[in-house]
Amino acid sequence: MVCQAIRSSAQGGCFHFAQKAELVAQMMEFIRAEPPDSLRSPIRKKAMLACTYLVPLEPALEEQVRADMVHGCLQSVMAVLTEPEGDDDRQEPLYLDTMQALEDLLTSLLQRDLTPQGLQVMVEHLSPWIKSPRGHERVRALGLSACLLQHFLEHLHVSALVPFHNLGLLIGLFSPRCADLWPATRQEAVSCVHSLLYLQLGYEGFARDYRDTAVERLLVLKGGLVHSDPATLFHTCHSIAQIIAKRLPPNQLISLLLTLFEGLGDTDKNCSRAASVMINCLLKERGHLLQEKVPEIVSVLRSKLQETGEEHVRQATQNSVSLLASQHCEAVVSSLLGSPLPFDSHTCILWRALAVEPSLTAQVLELLLQKMSRDVPFKESRAFLLSSCPGRVATLLPLAATCALSEVMSVPASAPAVLELYPQLFAALLLRVSCTLGVQLPRTLQAKERRAPGLALASRNLDPCSSAAETLQVMLLRGGSEDVVQYVEREGGWESLRTSTGHEEGVARLASAMVKFAGPRLPLVMKALLGAHSSVYEVQRVTSTAFLAELLNSNVVKDLMLLESLLDNLAARQKDACASVRRLVLRGLANIASGSPDKVRAHGAQLLTSMISGLDDGDDPQSLVALEAMLGLAKLLGLVEPWDLRSVLLHVAVRIRPFFDSEKVDFRSASICLFGHLNKACHGNCEDIFLEQVIGGLVPLLLHLQDPQASVAGACKFALRMCGPNLEREDLAEAFQKHLQEGRGLHFGEFLNTTCKHLMRHFPDLLGRLVSTSLFYFKSSWEDVRAAAPMLTGFLVLHVEPEQRQQVDLEQLLTALQLLLKDPAPAVRMKAAETLGRLVKFA
User: Fold this and answer.
1) Residue 700 C-beta-side C-alpha neighbours within 13 Å
2) Which residues form the MROH2B-like HEAT-repeats domain (predicted)?
């Protein structure tokens, strides 16, 4: 009564009440002494009334004292049961009076600081009760909030246009309660939103009696909230959100959204879903304003997923990121790409949310392809200071984009977008595989990979090359090419594709599978791969060339009318600085012999010119281009026009002759086999100048029948059989056919004796030349060939007529044989001794 009297007096406004704080503290002691769950006396009501009268008096209470007062009063009153205890009719009036006293106290405190910040302080005190799991506490808290807002609105005096800086935060707190389980709470929540929007209009300069059509519609919607049907509730929440979206200032949108995101974790699932509905509505209506806030929003969404595993929260965050991406696709993609690698499961959920709507998914995939392909795939880095060979370390952006592509395409709904971008995805991912061969993870990520088993990380392989290969498989599966994936798997192609040594073979297996099971897609895939022709990375040029080369191994390219363009594109790459590209070009051109043999004649001159160019390639120190040219010519010779072949026979024969004695088995085998095909191609039409090459090749072919490699010996058998008819000596040709059958054993001594007899009968003038060539092989690195060389010499001498002996430098021959007698191999010494015995004829 004293406080009331002071406040009511004429001098109350300037009265300085020195004991105010002590009196407030005493009142709070009375309030705390009351039981918090029941009303038994009017003490707390009277104490709060006293505090209400004290608040306006000077001096002002300290901030902490005010906070303790509000907290203590709320704790004392809010939890009181709504039902009166017993049948005492005085309980209900006491309850109502007590609530009124609390309302008056809060209003008096607000009146001392009638600003947006003062309002926020009061609402923050009420916030725990607004979110209380007990319905009656929520009703009271929302009721008190509505009263405070109404008081603020009624006493609002704006002298200058100032912002209502916390509008978004306050609306975000109240609006989800529009779907509360309790009807009274729902209606109070709408009242709060209604008052807040009018407060905003007041701060914008509108008169207090102004009535806004959109805001007034909230009162109509409020009446519909008495019904508890979920569909109706959420539809109403959507309508409320539309009104908020219309009247909310742009600078308040982000704070509203961030507060609503917090509401997704509300224990009341109805309110959580209402928050989701409102977020979606706001993003649709006003999302175009949020570009600069995208990173912050994406970060908050990821945090919400980490905080709770609730299904409805997961769906809400996915919907939100999808809606945001529909308006700011590049910003969302960039924000997600900035997530730490390897992506955790929560980030993967957000990536997969971008695969729901086909047009958005296509945008996302295109952006990710750009991010993956335009940045450098690796950087050179010396792992150790003393290391002479720099290692290649993956760059993060393309690696992240590759992982993101895998996540997006793992969603079944992404299929239409994958089909739309099939060629670009296929080409980019295949080239990504190639340029990450042997590329290492940065050390920081290597450490993360080792720790990964204990973390909530996605199961994707983070190794740069493996992740690219796996993403390519995901893309093929989602693009309807399951048969391609399975075929390559059966052939071991996926494993080969990941290794530097097997990569070309893996690419060939993949190309073969595409021909078999995805033929109609090849024209656009081929077009997409042609861009790699100008790639700065050799390995990408190698990969694209290997793929295109393998396509020519099938007649499907002819059916698809791709043959001409493939040949032209491969031929254009024959001048590439990379030897592997030039080699694969030749392989592809030669593949036409098996894929479209009927087209070889039409392109014979071009094909032969390319092969000859490969034979003469001087920029390949390992001669692998020449090897490929020899293999290709062997396939093509039987199919080209005779007049096209005639002009190159001699050049080819001369060019391949040095490879007969190569240390590399592939070169010996290929060159000798090609020599056989050259002979086969000119059966019955062998010019004298080529016959000279045939004769010059006899000694190497005969001696390499004893080559330690079966493939070389087999090639010699074939070549000699083909040489026979061109020597135009029937008995010699018959001997070759009889002794050198494919798959049959050879009695070398008997065969050599017979051959030398026929040679000396028909070509006695060749003795000196044959012996001289044979002497060259006395120094061969292969024991069996060294042993065969004196055998050949001995049989030639055995069957020659005496008058031909002047062709042989006997002294030179004896010296060479005497050296062989000291050879470490017993077989060589024995054959040398036998040959010395045959030289008696020369004595």
Assistant:
1) 22
2) 1-112
For 385, residues 6+ apart whose C-beta sits below 8 A from its C-beta are none
Lowest mean pLDDT among 29-43, 390-404, 590-604, 793-807: 29-43
Q: DSSP string of 259-315?
A: HHHHHTT-SSHHHHHHHHHHHHHHHHHHGGG-GGGHHHHHHHHHHHHHH---HHHHH
Rounded Cα–Cα distance for residues 124 and 122 (Å)? 5
Whether 730 and 751 map to the same domain: the answer is no
Q: How many whole angstroms separate alpha carbon 685 and alpha carbon 160? A: 109
Q: Are residues 605 and 732 in the same domain?
A: no
Q: Are 574 and 549 in contact (CB under 8 A)?
A: no
Tell me, yes or no, whether 705 lies in a domain: yes
Q: Are residues 473 and 551 in the same domain?
A: no
Instruction: Determine the straight-line distance between the first and last CA of the chain, rounded to whole angstroms.
Output: 154
Q: Residue 403 and residue 470: Cα distance in Å, rounded?
A: 9
DSSP one-letter code for 807: G
> Which pLDDT score is estimated for 682?
81
The reported pTM is: 0.86
- Counting Cα atoms < 13 Å in the Cβ hemisphere of 651 gives 14
Length of the chain: 843
Residue 741 and residue 755 in one domain:
no
pLDDT at 383 > cutoff 80: no
CA atoms of 283 and 454, how far apart (whole Å): 36
Question: Structural domain of residue 396, as residue ranges?
Answer: 306-380+391-443+462-480
CB 109 within 8 A of CB 24: no
Nearest to 242 by CA among 263, 264, 213, 214: 214
Residue 530 has pLDDT above 50, yes or no: yes
Q: Which of 457-466, 493-502, 574-583, 655-664 has the lowest mean pLDDT?
A: 457-466
Pick the residue with more confidence: 750 or 157? 750
- Cβ neighbours of residue 650 under 8 Å, at least 6 residues apart? 689, 690, 693
Buried b (16+ CB within 10 A) or exposed e, 249-260: eeebbbbbbbbb
Rounded CA Rg of the chain: 46
Distance of CA 463 to the CA centre of its chain: 11
pLDDT tens readout for residues 423-476: 999 999 999 999 999 999 988 877 665 555 444 444 467 899 999 999 999 999
The CA distance from 551 to 591, in Å, is: 8
Grouping H, G, I as helix, E, B as strand and the rest as coil, residue 568 is helix
Question: Residue 1 above 70 pLDDT?
Answer: no
Number of structural domains in the chain: 5
pLDDT (tens digit per residue) in 41-97: 888 889 889 888 888 887 878 889 889 989 999 998 888 865 544 445 566 788 888
- Confidence band, pLDDT 50/70/90 cuts, at residue 160: low
DSSP notation for 364-423: HHHHHHHHHHHS-SEEEE-SSTT-SS-EEEE-HHHHHHHHHHHHHHTSGGGHHHHHHTHH
Residue 31 has pLDDT above 70, yes or no: yes
Quick one: 341 and 472 in the same domain?
yes
Burial 285-302 (b: 16+ CB within 10 A, else e): bbbeebeebbeebbebbb
Task: Please give the full DSSP string across 603-635, using - where no structure is assigned.
Answer: GHHHHHHHHHHHHT--S-TT-HHHHHHHHHHHH
DSSP 3-state assignment of 58?
strand
Taking all residues of the chain, what is their mean pLDDT, rounded to a whole number?
89
Q: Nearest CA to 395 among 417, 373, 421?
A: 373
Q: What is the pLDDT of residues 660-698, one digit of tens each?
A: 999 999 999 999 999 999 999 887 666 677 788 889 999
The pLDDT of residue 339 is above 70? yes
Please state the separation of Cα 654 from the chain's center in Å.
50
Q: Among candidates 168, 171, 126, 117, which has minimal Cα distance to 145?
A: 126
